[in-house]
Write a structure and sequence with these properties.
Length: 330
C-alpha cells in the first residue's frame, strides 16, 4: 500500500477547473511511490479522500474535512483561499499552499489589459463598432476623455502574487505606482511608494486607476464601500481582479450612476455568475469579464510545475513553499 496518497477533487463542468488527462498520468509516472486518486464526480470524493494525506482542489466542505482524517497538505488551485477558512480547518494543522505563483502573472496581464482598455475608451469603440458608427468625435467627447497612462497614478491594493506583478508592469508603462499592503515593511514589490491600510483613504484620493488585488478577509470585505467611493476622483477608474466581496456592489452601482467615478472593470463579483438582472451589465462605464482573468492555455502546466516542486519537498520532509497563514487568510 502506498505510504502517500493524493486525492484530486476537481469535477467542475467548466473544463479549465478540471485537470487534463496528462496531468494525472504524468503525476503517476513521475511519482510511482505515491497513489493518485482522481474523483470525477462529487459522489466519489469520499473514496478519493479516504487515506489521502495530500489533496488538490479548490474547496473542501466541512463534512469532507471531518471525514479526511489523514490530510496533511492541501494544494489550492486558486490564489485566494477564503473558501477554506472555516473554524475547523483554520484551527487544524493542515497546511494549505495556494496557486498565487500560477495565476499572478496572468491575472496581472488581465488587469493591465483592462486598465489600458478603459484609458483608451475601447469599450466605447466596441459599442460603436456594433452599430457601424464612425465615432471619433463621440469618443473624444466622452468624459473622461481618452488619456495616456504614462504619468498617471495607479494605486494597487494588495501586493501579493498578483499585485506585485501589476505594480511592476505598470511601472514599466511609466505610471506612478502606489502600493497598499497589510505589512508595508515587507517592501514596495515594484511600486514607487508603499503604505499600510491606515493610509488607504489618502492613496485612493490620489488614484487615476485603482487595482484591487487583495485577499478577501473579514478586514477587507467591502473594503471599497460607499464612503471610500466618495474619495475617488470623478475621473478615476476601479479595477477588480481579486474577489467580488472586496467591493460593495450596490454602492458601486450608485457611484457609477452618480458619476462619482469614471468607470470600473470587473472580473469578479459578490455572487457568480453575475445575475442577468444586475444593472452593471447595462452601464456604459463598466467593462465586465466573466472571471476570466486567470485563463491561459498554460495554466495546468504551471500547476504541475508548482505542485510537483512542492510535492518533492513534502516527500523529503522539507518545508513547503507558498503556505497560507490561515488565521490571516493569505
Amino acid at each position: 500500500m502506498a505510504r502517500h496518497k493524493i486525492a484530486i477533487l476537481l469535477h467542475d463542468e467548466f473544463e479549465m477547473w478540471r485537470p487534463p488527462a496528462w496531468f494525472v498520468e504524468r503525476l503517476r509516472g513521475d511519482f510511482p511511490e505515491v497513489e493518485v486518486s482522481c474523483s470525477s464526480k462529487k459522489r466519489d470524493d469520499g473514496e478519493a479522500l479516504r487515506g489521502a494525506d495530500v489533496m488538490i482542489g479548490w474547496s473542501l466542505e466541512p463534512e469532507q474535512f471531518r471525514a479526511a482524517g489523514n490530510l496533511q497538505w492541501i494544494y489550492s488551485i486558486t490564489a485566494a483561499v477564503d473558501q477554506f477558512l472555516y473554524p475547523e480547518l483554520v484551527s487544524s494543522k493542515i497546511a494549505i499552499s495556494n496557486a498565487g505563483s500560477v495565476h499572478g502573472p496572468v491575472v496581472a496581464e488581465h488587469a493591465i489589459a483592462v486598465l489600458l482598455a478603459l484609458a483608451r475608451r475601447l469599450p466605447s469603440a466596441v459599442r460603436y463598432q456594433d452599430r457601424r458608427k464612425w465615432a471619433m468625435e463621440a469618443i473624444w467627447s466622452e468624459q473622461p476623455r481618452p488619456r495616456e497612462v504614462r504619468g498617471a497614478t495607479l494605486v494597487v491594493i494588495g501586493l501579493g502574487s498578483i499585485g506585485a506583478e501589476v505594480a511592476q508592469m505598470a511601472a514599466a508603462l511609466k505610471m506612478h505606482v502606489i502600493g497598499v499592503r497589510e505589512h508595508p515593511e515587507r517592501g514596495a514589490a515594484g511600486a514607487h511608494e508603499v503604505m499600510g491600510y491606515e493610509s488607504l483613504d489618502s492613496a485612493i484620493g490620489r488614484a487615476d486607476f485603482a487595482v484591487l488585488a487583495a485577499p478577501l478577509t473579514p478586514r477587507t470585505r467591502h473594503l471599497i464601500d460607499a464612503r471610500r467611493l466618495q474619495l475617488f476622483k470623478p475621473g478615476a477608474f476601479l479595477i477588480n481582479v481579486s474577489r467580488g466581496g472586496l467591493v460593495d456592489e450596490a454602492a458601486l452601482v450608485k457611484a457609477l450612476r452618480d458619476r462619482r467615478i469614471a468607470g470600473a472593470a470587473l472580473d469578479v463579483f459578490e455572487e457568480e455568475p453575475l445575475s442577468r438582472w444586475s444593472p452593471l451589465w447595462k452601464m456604459p462605464q463598466t467593462l465586465i469579464t466573466p472571471h476570466t482573468a486567470f485563463l491561459t492555455e498554460n495554466v495546468w502546466q504551471r500547476h504541475y510545475e508548482v505542485f510537483t516542486a512542492n510535492l518533492k519537498r513534502y516527500l523529503a520532509g522539507q518545508a513547503l513553499e507558498g503556505v497560507v497563514d490561515l488565521k490571516r487568510g493569505y
